[in-house]
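Problem 12. The chain below contains 82 residues. Write out its predicted structure in token notation.
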Amino acid sequence: MNQRTYNKSAVFVENAPKHGKMTKGEKEHKRSGFSERLREKMEIDMKKFKEHKLHSGPGKHHIVTDRKQAIAIAYSQARKGK
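Solution.
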């Protein structure tokens, strides 16, 4: 008999594992992509911000002094894939 189960995101999944473990495809999807790049960029850019070396534009005179601006720069660069 075919049993209907739901995964954590409340989407119907046919023959989903009952024990709640993620499948191999779900693990790969969770590891890759925008969130991984964003996490890495946030670490790099916040370190530069704290050292007063993060620039908002080309040249020496565009040093970022606002924490929210530093976060916005990290999001922007992560989206562009830099």
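Discussion. Helices lie at 24-31, 34-50, 67-80. Students who got a different answer should revisit the alignment rule from Section 12.3.
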